[in-house]
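Q: Could you write out the predicted structure for this multi-component system? I'm mainly interested in how the pieces pack against one another.
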Amino acid sequence: MSATIAMAPDTRLRRVLRQLARQPGTLLAAAVVLAFVLVAVFAPLIAPFDPLRSNFLAVRRPPSDLHWLGTDEVGRDVLSRVIHGTRISLMAGVIPVLVAVGLSVPIGLIAGYRGGWVDAVLMRITDAMLAIPFLIVAIALAAFLGPDMINAMLAIGLASLPVFIRLARGAALAVRAEDYVEAARAVGASPMRIALRHMLPNMAPPLLVQASIMAATAIIAEASLSFLGLGQQPPAPSWGSMLNAAQRHMVAAPWMAIAPGLVIFVLVIALNVLGDGLRDALDVKRH
Amino acid sequence: MSPLLEVTGLRKHFSLGGFFRRGEVRAVDGVSFAIEAGETLGLVGESGCGKSTLGRLILRLVEPSAGNVRFRGQELAGLSAAAMVAQRRDMQLVFQDPFASLNPAMTVRDIIAEPLEVHRIDTTPGIDRRVAILLTRVGLRPDHARRYPHEFSGGQRQRIGIARALALEPLLLVCDEPVSALDVSVQAQILNLLRDVQREAGLAMLFISHDLMAVRQVASRVAVMYLGRLVETAPTAALFATPRHPYARALLDAVPAPEVERRPRIVLEGDPPNPMDPPPGCHFHPRCPFATERCRAEAPALEVEDGHAVACHHWRWLPPWPGLSPALTEPMAPRLARLLGHFRPIEETSA
């Protein structure tokens, strides 16, 4: 330990990273997610073919030296489409989560902090929203907003809102009862300061886990919406729309479904493991 | 000259919302007392008697149902949020649980600096310096500022909590059971620390505890609370020499002591009555060996004689009290004192 009194601003980050380093499973999951991110960023450089160019001389070809994962029903390279589809699917995982967290945390904080009738009203609305199945809401919203990728992500984010509001409110309630929140009140801290400095950081762990699960769910939901034609519009690739196309050729060309199905599976598992690990790493040893 | 803190007829009734059965808990039921500047008042009573609620009412962390709290002659009830924040600068709280009262996501520096930042006392380098001084004052090292609460032992955390409470140099410190969550070997150190800072800064203290021996160490006056009411208030020496209320006697008899010979004692049986449904008359009568018909019917008022107040119909006619166990009044044997002295280095090195 150095002798300086100056605060290292990254002490908390460093502590979390140190915790993470002790969990090989989480590290592996993080590596997988990172790999997907890199693939998405460098998709045009990695992909061997143009994901949109069709070739009617090579329709539904099985995996070969030239097309590692085969070709689809109009002769497009499945590998290139999966690589380009990574961009859309990662965005489909991240954007709805940002929408949901960004809207639910303030609502949950207000409900949990103020309590009383504010809490009651907000929670009854949330309960009503919660009563409608997630995917149905997403489909209805996407249909209402129009078939478009951004609308689909927005719809998925809004549809998952009630779960996040409930979670944020529950976390806020639990943290609010802590002595250190009362200590901050005794000192004279403003409600805003209490919410942001004392409650929010201690509400993060359950929200983070839910966010990682939500990211996985959102990727699947995007696949479902694209499958129904409400998400990514052809010919641009997304894993969901690829599955949608593949289902008509399941017997003749199973490789068309296996590749996007497998990457969805791997990414979703990696996100879930990463979320679990992050929660453990963030969990301050309090006792 | 009015006292620093004056509490009159303070009440807090919590209503319990049941749909079919509505109830009301009278946690604090008409309490009046005063604390002079620089004085330490000990507040004792069983758990659930309303001590902690009383402490929070004084700091207006809980809104009173009725009654007045005057701080430096200023009525606190009804103050605007901004005016209340200004008052909070001079009244601080030390918590019972040193594990729950420090935000686990903040460094020790940020925890102790928070009051200074909220009241805009100093610039950042100035605050860093003050935090270092405060840490030294409570027996920690300035470089502890960069650490997180979970890296400290219970006693050290309580020192951090005390440093936070002292940061604003308050006039009144409310200590809510500050040592009851700590190991016995650490309790004495924290009590000594509190007594030292109290003397040095000349601050007034409300010391809430169920531990009579801890109260005797720090308080100059003691108030005994039972089921939301004060039953006895007296200078510490007077209370420990001649407790007037049967409940105060029972509390003193219950202090564990190595007994040489069995003495006649009042042993309390059962639990305190349900505060939702307190007994009529004197709240203590169902557990009191001296209770009469009058106690069951009529609640006694506080009667003051020689600065010693008691709320009991019969205190003048009670049989004489045999006194505190001699083991508690005689000075500690030198060998035992030396042995206990060895505990201090252990706690300080276990950072």
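A: Regarding packing and overall arrangement: The interface with chain A takes residues 56, 59, 61, 84-86, 88-89, 92-93, 95, 97, 99-107, 109, 114-115, 118-119, 128, 132, 142-143, 145-146, 148-150, 161, 164, 168 of chain B (CB under 8 Å).
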